[in-house]
Each structure stands twice: as structure tokens, then as C-alpha cells.
Structure of Leucine-rich repeat and WD repeat-containing protein 1:
Amino acid sequence: MSKITTELLLERAVPKSTRLRKIETLNLSKLQLKTGDLDPRLFSRLRHLQKLDLSDNLLDKFPNSLTLPDLRVLNCNNNKLEDVTALKQFPLLEELTYENNVYLTLNDDYKVMFLLENLRLLNGKDITKLAKHVRHVNSRKLTSKVTAHWEKFFRDQLPEKHTAEQVKSIKKRFLKSVQTNVVYGPSSLSEFTRWRVKMIAEEFLSYSLGLEINSDSEPEEKMDENEEESTESPREAAEDVAQVVYIYDPLVTVTPSKRKRNHSKSGAGNKRSKSQANTEEEAEDVSAEPLHFLQCHSKGNSHEDFKTQLWSCVFEPVLDSGARKDPIVSSSKTVATCGGESVCLIDCETGTVLKKYKVATEEFFSVAWTTLTMVISDSRKKAHNILAAAGRRGIVKLIHVAADFCYGEIKAHKKPIATVCFSPTQETHLFTASYDKRIALWDIGIPDCDYNFKASQLLVLEAVSIPLRLALVPTCPEQYLLAGCEDGCFAWNIKLDKGQKSRPFEAIFQFPDDESMTTSHRVDGLAFLNDDVVVSKSSKPGCIYLWSWSRSFDAKGKGCQRTVPAVILAELEWSTTDMSYLTLSTCPAKNYVFCGDEKGSVWMYNLSNHTTAWSSPKGKRSERRISPTQILKWPELRLNGEQPPEILVNNVVSDPAFSYLVVLTSVNITAIWKKS
């Protein structure tokens, strides 16, 4: 019988507790505990545990499935630990001590520095700088050596048409040879070097020969679909990080000849005129390199799933950074993506899928972040990031990411939800746009320490067609909302001091259509470039419009449902495809617009040289279409030895500082580019 019981955990909590989920600090030292005493089922209930003391016990290893999603401090001094790799299951770990474990060496120190990206203190020493060197410089050096070893000794040994047996044989010989012959660093780190070389070599073979990487991830557990149908306090346990297929790592697999970048050249149907080709008003070309290509939204974790569509991604805000004031520091390198039955959180630098949430009967279309100040234990308040996810079922899931817990849901609409967004000034206000031709404004409330909450509907905006994209006006986000819909672009007054809870649109915007103006067109891309300039993409092939909100919409105008000509500032040259729902995004801090196309490419527009002229009251319209500053071409990527099917870029989003670019496709591939 295990020495650890619920009663023992409650007794050893600091301070003592009455519920496992409330425990944040736990002292299990000096109990003669062995590895078998750490029951994963019992530990999985400690979802808020941040500090754990296991010192002075008899542990020889850690079980692989201790679900402690918020663990930050771990003390394992004076045990019998033989291996540290299982500690990778605690990705938020910041402080770790394991002194006086006689079987652990310097090699183990380097392993945990590589595996735990947030680790700051190891055995009482600050290892921040050394850990960065281990994760980046060391990895680059070893990757280069592994690649060179393959090219020199093994590449020519593999026939162009090879059998499975030949692949198996060369894999075995290559792994043995590379671990023996690739040497880097002092001899005291030879075990760590062999460990990393094997890891890098397997990833290399996975791409070059189409071999799968052995995954030690736990099987997926679906969210409980039988929870109470209530918005008060439904209980859903988010699943552990699921199996991920790392299709591509540029450090391992991309040769310079494959890193093709097209400098302002589009396809055959998008050639510039001579005047466009010779006039380089745009800022210099941006150097961006592909970091990771991930297949992490597969249905049933199938490696063969290239049909799941990926739709939405948004970067997580940084807590306590003054994020609402300074957009440059308002996001981390963690991005939430959605598509199919799952929502993933991805570290853009490492390509690691940090968390994955899954609802088997859902197809997620949109995600959005907000930061809520929640009451935690002892009546203390703390800011936490909350992720909202919605899709085909018309239900909004609310996820407390740090606790790895889906704490509630809002049954917002009876038809699918196309998109969601939070107010930048009212952190509990959430807009949901649905196929029922309505946009609803919700107050999602703030959950208490037991995750009880109450959501309420504040407003319903009536649309004449399905709303696809939402954009709050930056200068007055509590008063006006824009929506790109199936049949036009509309504006609503959303001020809550007006008595009317259900409201029609206040204005519909006209756009050029050949030689006339029209309101009837699908607007599937909509975003603000700055406080005044709106970027919208319609069903008209080959064109993205930039127009002035303030000069188009007169707030003093009388009457609802006015028809208003959009004051066009410029047109952006884009693909000639008539394919819909390839949406755009902006990076206001860097004056960039991004839009993907039907060939897997990303069109990038640096508009820094234009925004000053547009900001003047009498700013003139740009006479010619503005060509892209750069087009990022889809790399030559082979999946299981074959070219992927037709690749549509459904969405492309940068972080506010434009350090990373996340590309979502129609073939279940998330591509991450890094600005170099």
C-alpha cells in the first residue's frame, strides 16, 4: 500500500489544507518514499501545486505522468535519483535542487538545462546564461556536425528507390556512427553530447528519410463531455500535451538551396508593371527563416491527417508587463492555435507543444486571450491569462492555462461561432460572432478560487449576413465595432449606456467595384493598421484595401443603416485567386500587413513609408497598387517522402514585436518563421 494518501497530502500542505486542488506548497520530505509511492492519479489532483519538497527520501526516478502543471520549485536533495529526463514533464519549473544524489553528474545538469526552458536556479546557482548557451549555441554546433556526418559518410549509401529494410539498416548504422564520431566540448560532458546527438540525428532522419520519431508522450485523454450543462462551474480536465509530429526543423533539414525567398515577386498572374518594379519605396527586405513545421492538430493523433483545417492563432499576453499600454511587450513567444477538435499552445522558439486541449465533438474556429485578476488562496489577488476558444458547437470554452484547466463554458449561440475577440479595455467583455447572423457581447465574469463564475449577455448586434471578422475601433473600443461579413462591411454602436440591448448596424461601407461602388461583397479579412487605418480584404481578386475610419465614418451622422463610401487610401497587390477565407492580419507597432495565399506563400507589406502621408487630414490616395515588400515562399517540404497536397494559408499572425510569424494552413500544418 502506498505511503501517500489524501489525508497525508492535506496534512503536509503548507499551510494545511482541506482540498487537494487548493494546495500550493507541499512538504513530503523525510518519509522514506520510493518511486512507487508517487501515485500519478493522486498527484493529478494537485493542479495548483507550485512548490514541492521531496528531499531526504529513497526516490530513484520520477514517474512520467505526474500531472503537476503549475510546479515552479522542486527539491529532490538526498535521494537516489539515477535519471533526470522525466523532469521535462514540469515545463514551468524555475528552481530545482537535487544535491547529494550520488548517481547524478554534470551531464545530468546539462540535460535539465536543455529540457527545462524556464529553469533559472539549479542547485542554488543562477544558470540562465549557461542554459541559453546549451539550448541554442550547443544545439546549433551539434546539428551542424550531425548534418555534415550524414552528408559525408551516409548520404550516398541510400539508393534513390530504397526499401524499408534498407532504411532500417542505414538508420541503425548512422545512429551508431554519429554517436561515436561526433565530438564537441569537454570529455566530462561526453554522455550529454551523445544524448543530444542521438536526439538530433533521429529528428534529422525523421525528415530526410521519412522515419517517425519515437514519442514518449502519454496517450491523449479527451475532455469529459458529460459535465453539467451550466455556465456556473462546469468541470473539465484539460488533457496532457498530446503526440506531435515535428515535420521539419530548418537547423537539421533545410539546405540553402531550399530556403527560397521571393523578393517582391508573385506568381505568373501577379507580375508588376515596369514602374512598380523600378520603384522601391518599401523598406528593405526582411530576413525570415523557417523554424518549425508542426502537425499537432491531427484527428486521433494520426500522422496521415493532412485534411484538418487550422483557422486561428493569437499570442499570449505577458503578465505584469503593462501589456495594455505597450504593444511591443504585450505578448510572449507562446501562441495559441486552433483547428479541428483541438487547441494547442506552442513555444515558437523551440517548437514545443506546451499544452493541448481537445473536445472530440468540436471543430474550433477561433481563440482569444484576456487577463483576469483572480482571487487565489488567502484572499490574495493575482493576474492570470484566460483563453477563450469557440467553434462549430456555438459554445465558448474558458481555459485557465496556467492551471491547465478548462473551468467553464458559455452556450453563446445555437449555430457555429466564426470568431471571438476580447475588449482591450474591459477584460471580461467578450464578443462572439455567429452563423446565426448575430454578434453577442458577453461579460464572462471573474471565477472565484473554486472556479465558480457567472456569465451574462450584455448586447446583441443584428447582422444581415454571417459575420466573419471583428475589429474594435482603437480610438473608441467601447463605442464602435466593425465586422467583415459575408455580404459587406458594417459598423455598430456598442456603447452600453444606451438602453437598446438588441441593435441593428449603424453603417455599411461601400467599396470600389470596377467603375462603381458597391456594398455587396464578402469581407473575409479585417484589421486596424493603426488608430485610423483599416485594412480589409474582399472577394474581389488580387486586392486588399486600406481606408480611413475617421474620414469614412462621421459619428455625428444621423440615422441607422447608413450607406457610407469608404475613403480609400491605398490598394495592396495580392494574389489573383478568388478563393475566400484566406484572412489577413496586421502588426501595428511595425506597420506591417500579412496575408497568405492559395500556394502556401505569405505576402508581407511594410507600410512605414506611407502611414505619415495617410495620417494628414487631406492625405491623398496612393495612385498605384502597393506591391509586397516580400513574399515568403513555402519551402520544399516532403511529408512521408511526398510533396504535400495543395496548401492554403488560412491565417498568418506575428507577435507585436514581429519576432515570429505563425502560419496556419489547410493541411494541418502550423509553420513558424523567425525574423533574423
